[in-house]
Every structure is written in structure tokens, then in C-alpha cells.
Amino acid sequence: MLRVRPAVDADLDPLYALILRSDDGLTSLKITREQLHDRLENSTFAFRRQSQKMTGLPYVFVMEDMETGAVVGTSSIYSKVGGYEPFYAYQIEKSIHESKELGVYREIDVLHLHKEHDGPTEIGSLFLTPEYWGKGNGKLLSLSRFLYMAEFPDRFDAMTIAEMRGVIDRQGRSPFWDALGRHFFQIAFPRAVMLLTVSKNFVADLMPKHPIYLPLLPQDAREVVGQVHQDTRPALAMLQKQGFTYQGFVDIFDGGPVMHADTAKIATVANSRRCSLASIGTVESTALQVVARAGSQFLAVIGAVDVQGSEVTLSPEMANALSLRLGDLVRVAPA
Known about the structure:
It is built from 11 helices and 16 strands. It has helices at about 10-20, 35-50, 135-150, 175-180, 180-185, 190-200, 200-205, 220-225, 235-240, 265-270, 315-320, and strands at about 1-5, 60-65, 70-80, 80-100, 105-120, 120-130, 160-165, 210-215, 245-250, 255-260, 275-280, 290-295, 300-305, 305-310, 310-315, 330-335. The chain is of the alpha+beta class.
């Protein structure tokens, strides 16, 4: 059985081996072993904090195969983006150009550089090894984060965003980057992604300060603005079902969409509820639910459960995976 839990220091080596398998489009995973070590340290501190205030710290989760003990996936919540190093995105706005003399009226899409110092919560860094695709595993890895956010709402912003991977070819080439960013940074896309994990200061130094008129970009670049990589389409569809919408913001490097949602209205957050474990045994329902152990010792699984009012019945396998006893509290939401 697979379960999601907070990452710990002992996950450093297997987690680093896992993220080395991710491709260039997953920018938040293009980090060194030392950077991952720092991220895990910050995450461990975030999970253990008693204060419920937002801090900007990351919450790193791993998915483990309980039969083998292998780390097979990861995902994260960044409680607040911005701060010392702001969050950057392009906001697409309409610019009206009209000449009554010529009878011409045009609405032109324009890219405006958007900088956020006191930004929202961000979900990201999701990667599941291909051998474990399917069977609801991707759902568990993604939706379990929302159960944690529902359990500790004060730790997260009222708005949540998700930067989706943009269109990148098999050689790691980004049409959007080649048409725009490359001219200012004079480096290849993979190199830019790597530098972004070290510091964002170079973005402020080199990024164009003036609006960019989209029609001036090559056609292949215009066509990918706001579009996702083909491997990201299932993740996008899942987030859309959760209530995330595209509001005209795109990534400054690959042009992928930045999705937004009111945190409290995210489906798993809004529809989750705390229940008491009333029994462990045979489950009659076949509907999948994401189930998490309530409180600070967070663990999450996916499977069928019986829910009756404020009480649930779990299978022995699920109860064991969540380290539960009768009477313990869980948080449950439809998958």
C-alpha cells in the first residue's frame, strides 16, 4: 500500500535519487543535494512548529511504498511565496488600439511583468515515478496536500496558486523562452531553470521592465502561452476539478499557466470533514476517498471507506497505514 507522509532527514538520499529522474520542466525540483537538504530541514521545522502563523516555509511530502519502503513520489506546499525574493509572473492584459480614420480596432494581448512580495500559498514540486502512475496514486499525492491545508488553515494564505509546467520539447527547448527570455539572459533554458533555484535576484536584474506585445513574438511562442506540457494535462485537469482557474498569469520562463483558487473553496478543503474511527473491518463502499490522520502526525492514503455521519469504517490495511486505533480522528474527503 502507498501512503503520503512528511519528508524527514532520512529521506534525503532516496528523495534526491527520485528528483534526478524529473525533467527540466519541473523547475522547483532542479536543485542540488545541498539545496534539497536545506529544504528538508526547513520542512521538518515547518511541520513541527506549534505556531499556526504563515512563515513562507516549505512543507515537503513523500509517497512511500509500504511493502518496500521505497520513496516513489513527492509533492510540496510553499506556505507563502514572495518575501525577500519576490514571486514573478507575466500577467496578460488587453491593450486597445483603434483608428476611426482607418476603421481599425484591435485588442492586443500584452505581457506585463507581475511582482508579488506578499504572495499566496503555492503548491508544486509534484513528481511520481512512472512505474507508479495510475490506480489513484497521483490523486493521493496531489490531494493529500489539501487535507493538510484543511487541517491547519491558519498556516496558509487565503489564495493558493499552482505554476503548471509549460510546453517544452524532448530536447528541453522552450519556444517561449527562446523567443523572449533567452535574448535578455543569454543562457539556455535548462541553465536558467537551475539558476532560478539558487536565487531570483538575476530575474530583477535582467528581465525586461516594459510590456511585451504578444504579436511581436514568433508564432510557435505565441501558441504555447498559457498551455501546459502534455504530461501535465492530467494534473491540470485534476486541479480544475478542485476549483483552480486560469486568470491570465503565465510563467516568465516557459509560458505555462499559473492557476489560482480561493484556498477555502478548493474542493478537497471545502468538502473534507473530521470523523472518528468507529470500526476497523469490512468496507462496503466502493467510492474512493482520501483519508488522513488528523493532527500533527500527518499520514494519508486513498481507498474506499464507509462514512456514517461523523464516524468512519476503515479496512485493516488503511488503519495500519495511518497508524490508527479506534476512536482516533481522521480527515476524509471524496477523491
